[in-house]
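Hey, I was hoping to borrow your eyes for a little while. I've been staring at a protein lately and its backbone has me curious. You're getting the sequence in one-letter code plus the fold written as tokens. Would you mind checking whether the tokens look sensible for this chain? Here's the protein in full, and shout if anything looks odd to you:
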Amino acid sequence: MISKYKDLLDQSPNSELATLRLERLLQEDSVRQYLHESSTEWGRVFVHIITVSNFLFHYLCRKPETINLIGVEQNELSNIEKVTDIEGLRLLKYRELLRITSLDIDNNIPYEQVLSALSELADGILNKALELIEADQELKWADNEVPFALFAMGKLGAQELNYSSDVDLICVCANKEDISGDVDEYHSAVVQRIRQFVRTLEEITATGFLYRVDLNLRPWGRSAPLVMSIDDTEHYYEASTEAWERFAWLRARFVAGSDLLGADMLERLHPFKYRQTLGLDDLERFIDIKNEMAAIRRKEGCWNVKMGEGGIRDIEFFIQVLQIVNARHHPELQQTNTLKLLTCMVEIGLVDGNEAKNISESYLFLRRLENRLQMVDELQVHDLPDKEVKRLIIARSLGFSDIDSDATLGKFNQYLSHQRNVARQCFDKILLKGQEI
């Protein structure tokens, strides 16, 4: 039976592994029917998925009927309101990941849509998980509501989430004068909810898990309270001289909880993010950030697609510095998404159109590469493997092919070098010694 799929297997990133895995899945009626009825293209995508992604292969072994999600454009989020428990949320997440991965590997939609789909999935799950937790009667606070707001930072805030990235969150609660009842009890209830929320997202079961959560971007970091009032949060940032905190809030987005608290917090922090003027102290802090990034890049080891020289962070830093410098006077730059910001910068003359096209191509390729690394085992991986066998699988999964392995790797390495050079130039051109804002 396996011989009839020889062409698909020969096109896979690793034909030997693909053969073993396909033999296992051909034991399932739904898989045989799908391959019989689907187009050659979607059959190719399926074989690529089970070759590249260990966790999705094992998922398909447990849930072979979900193979019918491959190539489906409509997302699963319309069904999220029907979910009644956290296990149902986990099942929905992995159905969506399989669907999104198939569109990623097929590579026939703009890659921005893949990043957006991963972000929309996280938004939906965060909101539904919070809703299920709040329905738990044991977490009620004197039968009152427990208002607080959750802000997504980083890639989720920018609506360009990875396959397996931590979800960076900051929480804010109401001021004591806005609470009817004992303030200490209210604060305790909020902390209890947040802890339960994080445990729920991070719990690993046979199905998998929802998201790893990072709360360390909050004021004073790891050792600080999990949540502060909106007044205290505002006062903290009014006094902050940490440039990285301004960079972090540039991509902050309200994602769950109280709409009123969310809107109020973002309005209050608007002057913190987009200052009217920038002084020499600001310039020095930006240079310090760049120097820290440069030091990280010099560390030995595998090349890191996120932090390494010519990596994703080079482009993000370039765009965020231009945003901080110009957003106060150009309100269209007061948004969170990297490539939408780049488009706006072209429109107002901050970046040349051809240069922006090259930056966008580089950024999207590096993000595709990052997601390829993470879709293997659903781990937060950023290091590109040095071993040729592993790198070859990644290269082939990204569409690089030639007469033999060496030629394929040569094509991939050459293209990667070009895109890294574009990113590196972004990093090098911003805040050079003696440059003034």
Summary: The first helix runs from residue 6 to 10. The two ends are 67 Å apart (CA to CA). The chain has a mean pLDDT of 91.
